[in-house]
């Protein structure tokens, strides 16, 4: 019984060390230029503080400005609370915001290079989308393959 308790304590200590050092090793200082925001907790980020932020957004914008960074688990989110800045950001940088996060499972066999779902908005994506709309998912093609389905 004592052996089991000692093993449980050892596991807990190792897990705490991992959680406390995980976030520090992944980010280099000065490599990312992100807007200011509240300090996140290791591993969970700012998720515990979200309910209080949803009720009083003006307080956050007074503290951190109209553009702030929130850490939601392992993801970093940029929150824009000013309509003018949001309009400017989404109109001038629409190509940057339209890209998708590519999961590692699609990278294994290079599916992210040839799939319409994972390609960024580019000429190759437009060509593949046009071909799929006109040739693959056209009503005449779907009617022709109905017996096979």
TrEMBL record:
It comes from the Eukaryota. InterPro entries: Cyt_P450, Cyt_P450_E_grp-I, Cyt_P450_sf. Gene3D superfamilies: Cytochrome P450 (1.10.630.10). The keyword Translocase does not apply. The keyword Cell cycle does not apply. Keywords: Signal. Residues 1-21 form the signal peptide. GO terms for molecular function: heme binding; iron ion binding; monooxygenase activity; oxidoreductase activity, acting on paired donors, with incorporation or reduction of molecular oxygen. PANTHER family: CYTOCHROME P450 FAMILY 1, CYTOCHROME P450 SUPERFAMILY PROTEIN. This is Cytochrome P450 76C1. The lineage of its organism: Eukaryota, Viridiplantae, Streptophyta, Embryophyta, Tracheophyta.
